[in-house]
Specification:
Length: 141
């Protein structure tokens, strides 16, 4: 990933801001789903392919939390291999909804359905739930 950024000069600062070299996302399934490693891998790879098809992506799976719930860390390099341009901030809601759709299609819990059930047929956008967090974490390089 470092070589690609260097080759396309995407490792240099942008104006007075340091270069963002990657985006970090966490996919954390509902504990009640008891997702297997293969199931999590299938979900994470499908999500990365849908949303970052022209980027280098690294995915790490582990269950280091207290409840031993498997989750995936998805790291997306900042360089688009097709256009050579830097990664722009994707729409977090679009990323989340795509992940929800993929989860539901695999028989896993999806936040969209849960919110509709909880709020009488309509989704609430007031609260945040981390059933599937397709949101960038605080660690961006």
């Amino acid at each position: 990933m470092d070589e690609i950024r260097r080759a396309y000069r995407n490792d240099t600062p942008c104006g007075d801001r340091p270069a963002r070299t990657y985006k970090h996302y966490v996919i954390s399934p509902d504990p009640g789903d008891a997702v297997s490693l293969d199931g999590l891998r299938d979900l994470a790879v499908a999500w990365a392919r849908d949303n970052f098809p022209d980027y280098e992506v690294a995915i790490v799976y582990h269950d280091d939390n207290a409840s031993r719930i498997p989750h995936a860390h998805v790291i997306v390099n900042n360089t688009n291999l097709a256009t050579e341009r830097r990664l722009q901030n994707p729409d977090p809601r679009a990323l989340k909804h795509n992940l929800q759709t993929l989860a539901k299609g695999r028989g896993l819990s999806d936040l969209d359905t849960r919110e509709r059930e909880r709020f009488g047929g309509r989704a609430s956008h007031r609260g945040r739930c981390s059933v599937y967090r397709a949101q960038p974490t605080a660690t961006e390089g």
